[in-house]
Amino acid sequence: MPEPRHEVRATATGPGRILIAVYGIFALSASARAGVQIAERFDEAPLAYSLSAVAAFVYILATAGLAGTGPGFRRLAWFAVTFELVGVLAVGAFTTLVPGDFPQNTVWSWFGLGYGFIPLVLPFVGIFWLRRTGRPR
């Protein structure tokens, strides 16, 4: 006899709404930052500005994944939040160890220093929320 499937709680409930709002704000701000950087001075720091665009895209995916319902959106949220964590740790470590290679900052530079370290904390909160809402009620 097959095991009964448990229903998971939607991520867009309760405190998840605040998390989605924060991700949405970061999606907008990172997109605007990357757009201006790429449009006006891409030749100054193409790697840094490209990474800002990647961060913006990841925040958009995370926002959509957390706001959506269903297993496909949950998988999208897991992918985006995990990618964000790896990205902020890698870019943060790289900008700390080799600061000369990044003449301009990205959203994830110095572990998100320019954004009050929220980019460092946010994926941990996202993972916590995805795990918490993934448990049976």
* Class based on secondary structure composition and strand pairing: mainly alpha
DSSP helix fraction: 55-70%
In DSSP terms (H or I, runs of 4 or more residues), the helix count works out at 4
The biggest sheet, with number of strands, parallel, antiparallel or mixed sense and barrel status, is: none
Overall pLDDT level: 91
Shape: elongated
Strand content: under 5%
Number of strands: 0
* Low-confidence blocks of residues: none
Euclidean distance between termini CA atoms = 22 Å
Radius of gyration over all CA atoms, rounded = 17 Å
The helix/strand order is HHHH
Give a quick rundown of the structure.
It comes from Pseudonocardia parietis. By secondary structure, the chain is an all-alpha fold.
Structure description:
- Keywords: Membrane, Transmembrane, Transmembrane helix.
- The chain crosses the membrane at residues 18-36, 48-69, 76-98, 110-130.
- This is NhaP-type Na+/H+ and K+/H+ antiporter.
- It comes from Pseudonocardia parietis.
- Helix 3 (71-97) packs antiparallel against helix 4.
- The radius of gyration is 17 Å and the shape is elongated.
- It is built from four helices and no strands.
- With 137 residues, it is an all-alpha fold.
- The relative contact order is 0.17.
